[in-house]
Amino acid sequence: MTVSSYTAGQVGADTTRRWLIAAALYFLAAASTIHLTSNGRDIATIWPANAILLALLLAEAEPRWLLVLSAGMFGNVAANVITRGTIAAPLLFSIANLIEVAIAAKLTGFSRTSDGLLSSPGAALRFLVTAGVFAPCISGLLGASTAYLVFREPLGQSFSMWVLSDGFGLVIFTPVLLATFRGEFVDCFRSKSWRKRFEMIALLSTTALVTYAVFYVAERPLLFVLFPPIMIVTFQAGRLGTKTALVIVALIGGVATMQAHGPITMLADGSIAQAQLFQAFIGTLLLTSLPFAGEVTKRARFIAALIEHDKQMMEKATTDPLTGLLNRCGFDFMVEHLFGRRDEMRSVSIIAIDLDYFKSINDRWGHQAGDQALCHLARLLRAQVRSKDVIGRLGGDEFLILLPDSDINQAELIGKRITAAARNEPLAMDDTSVLLLSLSIGVATVLPGEPFSDLARRADQALYAAKAAGRSAVRLAS
């Protein structure tokens, strides 16, 4: 078997697997919805199955139209035949649903390259109008006509039920399914601390408990009680939390209403009126929560951008652009931070480093070679110190290393390691020439009550003693 044929076989197997998964998901969603929210003849109260297809189309940059729509067609026909017992209606209902999904996918295709359907209040409202009103109205013409011609259901009532059930199904379930297919829930969960994870789970669990209490326990119509937990989820957990909370309310409330439980049955008589009132309630939740979720997401992105900008500005202000080490400003900041708690450390030492004959390097090889030598030295220093040690380039060829929890002997050992590394790792200047760096190093350990300026001065005096002794040496401060 050739590589190309093996690859083609893999692609074919993947396509088949995706088709089977899409068809199975649609069948399960459609069959359970018809069974739970319809009498087998009328339009289902809420229709989440189309949201599966829409989310699959929006999840990829290049949607697989034929694969997704054909899988939806098969799942739709199978679910309708099993639950309704006819073949004419399933075919027409399936065509109407595919038209709806295609229109919604085309009009909301911008979401594939944006931050999501709820990235801002404007995006949320556009999605509500497109998927919640326009696409269901177009498909509802065929769907309602099918219900009237095949089952003799009232045309106007069937059309309104179709628009409401399909619209709410798309608006409620598409964002959640899209986030699931894109892996956003997994990424969000992994990015949060355990405390934030438990907080999000607790908020959603509270929403589920309050919803259950409103629809199964309360003896009065307390629908307004659902708004506070959803708003709290919106502000604490963002758009992903809002999507999940709305699905929880829709599922628990929809099943309870179809089972003649809850506040909706207290406020309306008859299954049709109850279904329409429940849809109106869900619509109110959507129009209240989704724009807020979009605004919360927008503000969170703005704050994150400000934090990142401040971080970048801080790095530019405190980092030497040539070597990537701390500059004088950044080094002084770290010194102030560490010296402020030096009583917690057993000792603090400092190493002063000067690159010998740096001027002659520039004169012989040019300033670019001098920059290469400084960068090479910076790499050597990073490799020889501990992660908690602080390295700074204070200017020219002058470097300082602050060593927390280090006495004079440890600091001297590190200084000798640095000079040995400089001798053992020459810098290649061209194909035939290498440069051995020579370093003069002064080491000092802080005395009781000594300020940093005096410590640095003593390390600098030791450095000049190393230079006076012939360079390429380590000297300890008195």
UniProtKB/TrEMBL annotation:
<dbReference type="InterPro" id="IPR007895">
    <property type="entry name" value="MASE1"/>
</dbReference>
<feature type="transmembrane region" description="Helical">
    <location>
        <begin position="198"/>
        <end position="215"/>
    </location>
</feature>
<feature type="transmembrane region" description="Helical">
    <location>
        <begin position="157"/>
        <end position="178"/>
    </location>
</feature>
<dbReference type="Pfam" id="PF05231">
    <property type="entry name" value="MASE1"/>
</dbReference>
<protein>
    <recommendedName>
        <fullName>diguanylate cyclase</fullName>
        <ecNumber>2.7.7.65</ecNumber>
    </recommendedName>
</protein>
<dbReference type="Pfam" id="PF00990">
    <property type="entry name" value="GGDEF"/>
</dbReference>
<keyword id="KW-0472">Membrane</keyword>
<keyword id="KW-0812">Transmembrane</keyword>
<feature type="transmembrane region" description="Helical">
    <location>
        <begin position="276"/>
        <end position="293"/>
    </location>
</feature>
<feature type="transmembrane region" description="Helical">
    <location>
        <begin position="88"/>
        <end position="107"/>
    </location>
</feature>
<keyword id="KW-1133">Transmembrane helix</keyword>
<dbReference type="InterPro" id="IPR043128">
    <property type="entry name" value="Rev_trsase/Diguanyl_cyclase"/>
</dbReference>
<feature type="transmembrane region" description="Helical">
    <location>
        <begin position="19"/>
        <end position="37"/>
    </location>
</feature>
<dbReference type="InterPro" id="IPR050469">
    <property type="entry name" value="Diguanylate_Cyclase"/>
</dbReference>
<feature type="transmembrane region" description="Helical">
    <location>
        <begin position="66"/>
        <end position="82"/>
    </location>
</feature>
<dbReference type="InterPro" id="IPR029787">
    <property type="entry name" value="Nucleotide_cyclase"/>
</dbReference>
<dbReference type="InterPro" id="IPR000160">
    <property type="entry name" value="GGDEF_dom"/>
</dbReference>
<feature type="domain" description="GGDEF">
    <location>
        <begin position="346"/>
        <end position="478"/>
    </location>
</feature>
<feature type="transmembrane region" description="Helical">
    <location>
        <begin position="43"/>
        <end position="59"/>
    </location>
</feature>
<feature type="transmembrane region" description="Helical">
    <location>
        <begin position="127"/>
        <end position="151"/>
    </location>
</feature>
<keyword id="KW-1003">Cell membrane</keyword>
<feature type="transmembrane region" description="Helical">
    <location>
        <begin position="221"/>
        <end position="238"/>
    </location>
</feature>
<feature type="transmembrane region" description="Helical">
    <location>
        <begin position="245"/>
        <end position="264"/>
    </location>
</feature>
